[in-house]
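Hey L., structure's done. Input below.
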Amino acid sequence: MTFDAVVAADVLVVGSGISGLSAALAAGPARVVVATKAELVSGSTPWAQGGIAAPIGPDDTPARHAADTLAVGGGHNDPVAVDVLTSEAAQAVGALVASGTRFDPGAGGRPELAREAGHSLRRVLHADGDGTGAEIARALAETARRAEHITVLEWVFAADLVVSGGRVVGATLRSSGGDRLVVAAPAVVLATGGIGRVYANTTNPPEVTGDGLAMAHRVGAGVSDLEFVQFHPTALAGGGDPMPLLTEALRGEGAVLLDGTGRRFMREEHPDAELAPRDVVARAIWRRVVAGERVVLDARAAVGDAFPDRFPTVFAACGEHGIDPRREAIPVAPAAHYHMGGVATDLLGRSTVPGLWAVGEAARTGVHGANRLASNSLLEGAVFGARAGKSAAGAGLPVPTAAELREAGDPGREPDAPADAVELLREVMWTGAGVVRTRGGLRAALDELERIDDKIHPAPSEARSMVEAARLVAAAALARPESRGAHYREDRGR
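Output:
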């Protein structure tokens, strides 16, 4: 077919969060095109509050960080991948600093370290209090715009991968203005983020619709661990969509959870109380919420008047909902937050399809196992993003030919998706494949998703990505009868 534009690159990176921009920067001096469906600073990275974990403290080691990661991961992590993550953490943080990231300073000019759930000590670097992701995104975006080897395409939707002779040779894109583009590249890196928007209750921004997972699955790439969806225990329960995140660092500083009677209940749920792994805390809150109780996070004593300076993002979100967290407790509920599963990759980000890499939340590297340790997400994006970028640039794959590009499909115009079908999909996933799951609930969800699928246009779109990702997640959850980490089967497979 005829495209409005054909762009050639050595590496195409789809997505512009920490993993995508880390890959793009590391791929130099190869010619890189970064394609993002919103502006350059978008997606989940600028929304990340807590920070980035790294074993740089005086009493910390990569081995200790790895042990905490494995403990939280429910015995499902890849130990080799975890060792890579923690041993290269300090280097990744150094690269972020070199890119201009300004972490909050502590004693002696070293970065201040916070503690979050699952960590045995303080090892979480943060910026602007709870604005870590926004600061990292700013610095990486500015560096990428200055890099001579990077071309940025904003407001373009990656419709599909181009496959010829069993390998990926580029992708077709659709601009917000209706232009149809193809990027010809022997190496494509998917850095499209997670699947949070398939759930009615989520902390993820609207653009996180599972596009990379859907695209990769359509071309036959291996996927893994799709049932492991992390539900953050403390999202602000004020009717927002997305629900404002209340960073785990609040509990790290001593904030406590109270039930409907004002009683602190987490001490009876886990020895680490509010600093128990996220899945434990999320289920404890969920049980009370579905029973009709109002659960609140009380940070008045722990943070108090320091709120505007230490947690400005949370303070602002509370203010928008008429809450002053210095004077009152904050109503909370769990929300879909992070996908541990994704496109199966090796330690260099390579998928099972030649020419295709995946990084960040779109990938399943094995570092998170069944449940992600807090603040390891930004770290994974930085470490494995850089690895994938170098690998993709150095793969030595042949440049796509004109004949190969004729395999490209028409990205077309954005097909209309019935709003009620999308909203129903999100409710079905929350009810049937949410915090607590059963065989019957998952079967009912899959049946309903099949009916919803018939209402969604088959052409690539966000709605198409959502229904494909939702079906994959629900099917994987049904196939695992045990409870492990964030995947909890109340019926234990009955």
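The chain has three domains: 1-228+340-412, 233-335, 419-479. The mean pLDDT is 95.

-- N.
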